[in-house]
Design a protein that fits this description.
The complex is a heterodimer of chains A (288) and B (317).
Chain A: H1 2-41, H2 44-48, H3 62-68, H4 78-109, H5 115-127, H6 130-144, H7 150-175, H8 178-186, H9 191-220, H10 223-228, H11 237-246, H12 252-286
Helix pairs in contact in A: 1-12, 3-12, 4-7, 4-9, 5-7, 7-9, 7-12, 8-9, 9-12, 11-12
Chain B: H1 2-23, H2 27-53, H3 73-79, H4 82-115, H5 120-132, H6 135-145, H7 152-159, H8 173-202, H9 206-213, H10 218-243, H11 248-255, H12 267-277, H13 281-312
Helix pairs in contact in B: 4-8, 5-8, 6-8, 6-11, 8-10, 9-10, 10-13, 12-13
The chains are: A mainly alpha (288), B mainly alpha (317).
Protein name (chain A): Carbohydrate ABC transporter permease
GO biological process, one term (chain A): transmembrane transport
GO cellular component, one term (chain A): plasma membrane
């Protein structure tokens, strides 16, 4: 009896400890983001206040309004940056996924010599640090006259995304049983038809998440974009964020608002793909 | 005469067929061709160009220097450059600290979430939260929080009465390094946590129960049953991470830009500074090769680990 109750107590205590640990961990994860959102809604006076004001006294969307009302008032051309980011990310994602689908299919469905070294080789091109790659690209782009253009950045991002897209899509095709396509071929489909009518729809959600992942990589990329773009006509949002820090007095509220604008698409998209993303990474890589 | 001609024609046909067959590229090659072309154009060829220019005293302002060959002079002067070695050492230190802590914290977080009985879906979504932040945003957010005057960290410490001073988080060298490590760890623990959690959830429950019945302590159960099973997942996370180690550049660039006085200069910020601020492209390219080799070493190492872990538990898959 006594042993029972002490065991129960111990179990309950462990439960409490577990819950506290979980709470603290989640707090650490969420707090920085929440703080940014909160700061973007507070007047600058409150952000700067000493001693700090913990409970917001007034909430306003002024920072967002100022940001989207164009240049002026120390604002930066957010709309243009947003448009550039969107054009560059979407275009390069579409191209990268098309290329990645072909490559991923090759890895998932064919045996060929040096397969694993080809795979590793592809991955190694991805490891080249953006800043190291930016040096020759900068030089080449200046020569070719595609510096500070959408095209230049799209090209770079396609190359950046292809290896990882292949990894992910390879994983998703592996999850589709081979027999299905074979059955379709026996029933008179060509391999091409079997692919589009059987394998592609089944791997579809996975491919969509690979696409979203590629999109996010472009959307978030900084090292290359900061060197390969110069002006409003091609700068992306992450580079635009730096506009704020370049000035002597930092407009914290404006930066926070821009950060929120950047994170919302990413947040929504990641939420959609989270399930498939993990599946693609593990099945491709673990099950050989 | 006629037969000889026919024989010849036949032989030629045969040869043609063989030739045709030899030239016909295989399907996987064709499928991978677009990827090869793009990567060759955007990564391999530019890298060869930068390899060449690392042997020249190339400066952006003097294009003619591109054709002057100086052999290993850039590399020699890098090797004698203490700033470079400091940056190199700091980079390796940051990566070692960050990767190890990310792994440990990710494991802890995954186990916490796995044990949770309710709301696991929500917890998992929250856990992925930092992954969505671009490194540049992570940098900015921690720059804001660690600001000595208005930052959340100092404000909290002062309000709680722990200290009265404004701790110069981003202004003092060591503290800045710590702040950067925290930012780095915050942003990348998620990927470990998620993949390890996937492993934990995929794990069959029988071996754990068997271990418990056989009298293993919780630690032994973890060490000899759970960990070997989860390890490949941790290595996948490591591999993915190592593909992208250089993203610390973004964080450092925005938080301290290598300062104060070069105390948080990493290999990558040093490359950027040498290339774009000083305009010494040849030298920067030589440095960049060190950073490329570092990244490749990390990736190859973890790929091999991944392969080993995969074969080790291959039977169970």
């Amino acid at each position: 009896m006594d042993e029972n109750s002490s065991a129960r107590l111990k179990r309950r205590l462990l439960g409490v400890v577990h819950r506290i640990g979980l709470f603290l961990a989640m707090l650490t994860i969420c707090l920085p983001g929440l703080w940014i959102v909160l700061s973007s809604l507070r007047p600058t006076v409150e952000i700067m206040a000493k001693p700090p004001v913990w409970i917001p006294q007034e909430i306003s969307f002024d920072a967002y309004i100022a940001m989207f009302s164009g240049i002026g008032k120390g604002g930066i051309p957010v709309i243009e940056y947003f448009r550039n980011s969107l054009i560059i990310s979407v275009t390069s994602t579409i191209i990268a996924v098309a290329i990645g689908m072909a490559g991923g299919y090759a890895f998932a469905r064919y045996r060929f010599r040096g397969k694993s070294s080809v795979f590793l080789g592809l991955m190694l091109t991805r490891t080249v640090p953006g800043i190291a790659l930016s040096l020759p690209l900068f030089f080449l782009y200046v020569r070719l006259g595609i510096i500070d253009t959408h095209f230049g950045l799209i090209l770079a991002y396609v190359a950046l995304n292809v290896p990882f897209t292949i990894w992910l899509i390879d994983g998703f095709f592996r999850q589709v049983p081979k027999d299905l396509a074979e059955a379709a071929q026996i029933d008179g489909c060509t391999r091409w038809q079997a692919f589009w009518q059987v394998e592609f729809p089944l791997a579809g959600p996975g491919i969509a998440s690979a696409a979203i992942f590629a999109f996010l990589t472009c959307w978030n990329e900084f090292a290359l974009a900061s060197q390969l773009t110069r002006s409003v006509s091609a700068k992306t949002l992450p580079v635009g964020l730096l506009d704020y820090t370049a000035e002597f007095t930092i407009d914290w509220r404006g930066m926070c608002a821009l950060a929120v604008v950047m994170i919302i698409p990413a947040l929504t998209l990641t939420y959609i793909v989270q399930k498939h993303l993990v599946g693609g990474l593990t099945s491709g890589a673990v099950k050989g | 005469m006629h037969t000889a001609f026919r024989r010849l024609a036949h032989a030629m046909q045969k040869r043609n067929r063989i030739l045709m067959k030899g030239f016909k590229p295989s399907a996987p090659f064709l499928l991978l061709l677009p990827a090869f072309i793009v990567l060759a154009a955007v990564v391999v060829v530019p890298l060869l160009l930068s390899l060449y220019s690392s042997f020249t005293p190339f400066r952006l302002t003097k294009p003619e220097t591109f054709f002057v060959f100086v052999g290993f002079r850039n590399y020699l002067s890098i090797l004698a450059n203490t700033d470079f070695w400091w940056a190199f050492g700091r980079t390796v230190l940051l990566l070692t600290i960050a990767l190890n802590l990310e792994m440990l914290l990710g494991l802890g977080l995954a186990m916490l979430v796995e044990k949770a009985t309710r709301g696991q879906r929500i917890l998992r979504t929250l856990m992925m939260f930092p992954m969505m932040f671009s490194p540049i945003l992570v940098g900015f957010q921690f720059k804001f929080m660690f600001n000595d005057n208005i930052g959340l960290v100092n404000n909290a410490l002062q309000s709680l009465g722990i200290t009265q001073d404004a701790i110069p988080w981003l202004i003092e060298g060591h503290l800045a390094f710590i702040a950067i490590s925290i930012a780095e760890i915050w942003s990348s623990t998620a990927i470990f946590a998620i993949l390890i959690l996937t492993g934990l959830l995929a794990m069959p429950k029988e071996p754990i129960e068997a271990a418990r019945v056989d009298g293993c302590t919780p630690w032994q159960t973890f060490r000899y049953v759970t960990w070997p099973f989860v390890m490949p997942f941790a290595y996948i996370a490591m591999t993915i991470r190592s593909l992208d180690v250089a993203r610390a550049y973004d964080i450092v660039k925005i938080m301290t830009d290598g300062g104060p006085a070069g105390r948080t200069e990493l290999l990558w910020t040093l490359v950027a500074r040498t290339a774009y601020s000083d305009g010494r492209m040849g030298m920067a390219n030589a440095m960049a090769y060190f950073s490329i080799l570092l990244s490749i070493a990390f990736t190859v190492y973890f790929f091999n680990k991944l392969a080993a872990a995969r074969t080790q538990i291959g039977a169970e898959w």
